[in-house]
Amino acid sequence: MQYEYDALGRLTQEQTNSLKKAYSFDATGNRTQRTTTSLTTSDATDTQSLTYASDSNRLTSVNGSTLPVDAAGNHTQINGRRFTYDSQGRLSEVYQANIYKVADYKYNALGQRIIKRSYVMGSQALAGTTTYLYDSSGKLLGQTFYDGNGQKTSGQYWFWLDSMPLAQLTANFSTLGEVSSSKLIYLHVDHLNTPRLATDSSQALLWRWNSDAYGVEAPEEDVDGDGKATTITLRFPGQIYDAQTQLSYNYHRDYNPDTGRYVQSDPIGLGGGLNTFGYVSANPLRWSDPRGLAPWDWNGRGNTGVCSYYEQRVCETTGDLSDYYKRAEDICKGEDRAVNSLLTVGIASAWIRGTTNLSESDIYNKIRAELISNDKNVSSNSGPNGVTGDMIDAYHNDVFRDVGIGPLFYGGNLWPQGIPPNPVPRSGHN
């Protein structure tokens, strides 16, 4: 893949060996055009044109077709599907051909979708019900399916390493509600924790999602060609595909990959950015938005120049303490896989919990500055070679708490002193 960006960091072009997509934007960041060009068939070009209201960022038409909105600016009709919304601006019903209800949705007090009921087209008989289960941080743990008679039939359940989906368990249930069969598959994610591949226990590839940057293109559900589809509805972080709306449910809003926008305005107003309908500032390869509120900014690990401080400390110390400072420099630079991976999980957790809205680089820079300042203080008070492991742990806990990450994601609390990968020397053994 090849990518190009404009001066504002917006994705303007993506290219594979066979396809090129180019994006244009107006002054406020609304995408005005997407041009798709085949690199194998010279005359195959498709253009999507989008227009907006002159007094807002509301999308008014796609390729000349008007997109109606309600008084709050929520899109009420897309590609033959009509949407209605509740008093909180949550998508509550979807109709096909303007008259046939195909689904309705219920939400809890936290704004999480908890029930979907789908209906048979025409007869309006209940076709089935889906219930959703979340953990305390708001991550989706699973969805359970019931038929039109209320009989539990199957479910999909996910296993997570904080914000990274690791595996999916699909279970089928007997008429007694017991598990009659199950299948565990393993998820392989990209740099944003979006599932891209799925394999079984023998490492056979079952599922693949090679979408464009905005999530256009359906996944390949029978990669191994055995005639059995593998269904995974997870999409970008915080999103799950909904077949009835043909949108991705994104916690507080619903995302339309085709336009690269939300169909509702941001419920936190300008707190998530000046364009209240836009998705991650038109840079979906760098940012994600698991809550449907504001982008998570994975913008790198900041200024590592200050890490030279630890080179000085290596020269000033001896034994285990000197060895610690050698490792501390690598960690400071983001080059220690085990320790820095834990911090990456901690950053995502902090964004989920809302304990910081700083970007990745700002968090790293703040941690570096405070850790170095604290280390200077303790070495000044205790002597260059008098710093103990307990002192190091204490100021790390304070710093991680101060930046909003929390001591849980400081590696010194996960691994004992002096036990790899923890380089902090055991107190009394310096």
From TrEMBL:
InterPro entries: Rhs_assc_core, T6SS_VgrG/RHS, TEN-like_YD-shell. The keyword Secreted does not apply. Residues 1-148 form the Teneurin-like YD-shell domain. Keywords: Plasmid, Repeat. It holds the Pfam family TEN_YD-shell. PANTHER family: PROTEIN RHSA-RELATED, PTHR32305. This is Sugar-binding protein. It comes from Pseudomonas syringae.
